[in-house]
From TrEMBL:
UniProt organism field: Evansella caseinilytica
Name of the protein in question: CMP-N,N'-diacetyllegionaminic acid synthase
GO MF terms, alphabetically ordered: N-acylneuraminate cytidylyltransferase activity
Higher taxonomy: Bacteria, Bacillati, Bacillota, Bacilli, Bacillales
Superkingdom of the source species: Bacteria
Length: 242
């Protein structure tokens, strides 16, 4: 709880995954991807309850052993490759209300961002409540600027993705960010079911060091390197990896 507001941490974890089979249960340094998110949520100072939304009995069992609540399985219709995450969020919130579990905000924490730390969650919540926002989303700086991107025609020729004067220097580019998927927090009200996670305008900035969006096997290797890098820096005074 933070300033009288109750926060639900919701971790979405489907059993199916095309890029990495069984992705949410893949282990790195003895912990599954879902464990990193469950532990971060449980160590947050403001999260009141941690719930995992899954269609998998195996993930349900693992999550419960790690201290998360999984009071029901997600319907198959909400666990397809084309299902919208927000629909699973609304379904979970509604089911919890049926057993008199009420929250003011839901914090969506995707297991595919395992480097997100408890202090990230807390800082995002503090920003959300402190500014009286309806929602907030985590972002990371982007090094590969869109002005340097190209699209390719069928004949292999390239065209600028965005038009820019040839005289603009790279150091003069406007700083850009990408929604990294680590934290989405939204107020629980009637507008929640109509909300698009992609349209949240208010941001919480995370360092690139903590950005490890895992979708394909190579991303796992990047995550391992970043994890070791951050662990080595603990003694140098950075906020601790848990």
């Amino acid at each position: 709880m933070y300033k009288g507001k109750r926060f639900l941490a919701l971790i979405p974890a489907r059993g199916g995954s095309k890029g990495i089979p069984g992705k949410n249960l893949v282990e790195v340094q003895g912990k599954s991807l879902i464990q990193y998110s469950i532990e971060a949520a449980k160590k947050s100072n403001y999260i009141d309850q941690v719930v995992v939304s899954t269609d998998s009995e195996e993930i349900q069992s693992v999550a419960m052993q790690l201290g998360a609540k999984v009071p029901f399985l997600r319907p198959p219709s909400l666990a397809t490759d084309t299902s919208k995450t927000i629909d699973a969020v609304v379904y979970t919130v509604d089911k919890l209300k049926e057993v008199d579990e009420y929250f003011d905000y839901v914090a969506l924490l995707q297991p595919t961002q395992p480097l997100r730390q408890p202090f990230h969650i807390d800082e995002a919540i503090e920003a959300l409540v402190g500014k009286s926002l309806e929602a907030i989303v985590s972002v990371s700086p982007v090094q590969e600027h869109p002005l340097l991107m190209r699209t390719m025609n069928e004949d292999g020729s390239l065209q600028p993705f965005m038009k820019t004067p040839s005289t603009v220097r790279r150091q003069d580019f406007t700083k850009v960010y990408r929604v990294n998927g680590a934290i989405y927090i939204a107020k629980i009200d009637e507008s929640l079911r109509d909300r698009s996670l992609n349209d949240i305008e208010n941001s919480y900035v995370m360092s690139e060091e903590y950005d490890a969006d895992i979708d394909v096997p190579f991303d796992l290797e990047v995550f391992k390197l970043k994890l070791v890098h951050l662990q080595k820096k603990i003694s140098g005074g950075i906020k601790c990896i848990h």
